[in-house]
Design brief:
Helix content: 10-25%
CATH topology: Jelly Rolls
Strand content: 35-45%
Structural class: mainly beta
CATH class: Mainly Beta
Number of domains: 1
Largest sheet: 6 strands, antiparallel
Length: 152
């Protein structure tokens, strides 16, 4: 895993030119080291990250543009520009763009764990990936998706 390097990651660019398509969302990594990973995310209208848990990472989302509906430990809320969403390890959470505009935000996790590798594994899976495959790949990278509410 890389050590953090000094420098500036320019606007609209990712480290090493990386730009991931993660299930219709665009993630542009800004920094990666053993201790943390950060990325700029664009959520098109109607996209979401279903409820899941990071058992070994704290996660943060700083809202830049738009509105995300959030499900935090079973409670519904929302976040808008300037808001910081705090997601402690082990707490179930989901993020949803139910608005009529795209959302832009900055994510970061600490420590980085295997999330960088997960994004490579999920990159360009296609417009209709097999949900079971996404769940299995994610579990191997320390992200545990929760069953849909009606699946219990």
């Amino acid at each position: 895993m890389p050590n953090m390097t000094i420098g500036v990651t320019p606007a609209n660019e990712g480290i090493e030119g990386i730009r991931w398509n993660i299930l219709g969302q665009i993630y542009v990594p800004k920094q990666h080291s053993e201790h943390s990973l950060s990325w700029h995310a664009t959520f098109p209208v109607g996209t979401f990250v279903p409820p899941h848990i990071h058992p070994t990472q704290d996660e943060f989302v700083y809202m830049l543009e738009g509105r995300l509906d959030v499900l935090l430990d079973g409670k519904e809320g929302f976040a808008g520009p300037g808001d910081l969403v705090r997601l402690p390890k082990g707490v179930p959470h989901g993020l949803f763009n139910k608005s009529d505009a795209e959302v832009k935000c900055l994510f970061w996790v600490s420590p980085a764990q295997r999330l960088y590798d997960l994004f490579w594994a999920l990159h360009n899976l296609g417009p209709t990936p097999d949900p079971a495959q996404v769940v299995a790949i994610s579990a191997r990278h320390e992200v545990d998706f929760l069953p849909p509410p009606d699946a219990g």
